[in-house]
Amino acid sequence: MEITKQYRFFEISRSDWDFLEKYQKAKNEYNGWIEVHESYLNLETRFIEYLNDHNLLLKNNIIDIKDIKKKKKLSDDLKNIQKELQWIPNQIEDIKLWLEYNYERAANIN
Length: 110
What we know:
Blueprint: H1 2-10, H2 14-58, H3 65-108
Helix pairs in contact: 2-3
C-alpha cells in the first residue's frame, strides 16, 4: 500500500518506476560484487602469507606428511580463489557500464 502511495505521489509512469527499481537493484548488486571481490583479495593475501609461513616450516629437516597434505590443500584452495578473482572483475565492470549508461535516464525521472 505504501508503494502505491509513493507511486501516485511522484506521478511517474509504471515503466519508469520499474526501471528505477531495476536500477537500484543493479546498484546494490554492483556494491555487493565489490565487497565479494575485496573479500576474495583479502583471502588470497592471507592464503599466500600462510603458504609462505608454511614453506618456511617445511625447510626444517623434519618433513611431516600432514604438513605436505596441508600445503597441497592450501595450494588448491588458493588456485580456486584466484580462479574466482579472474571473472568477478568482469562482472563488476559489466554492471558498472550498465549503470553508467542508464545513469542519465535514472537521474531525469521525476
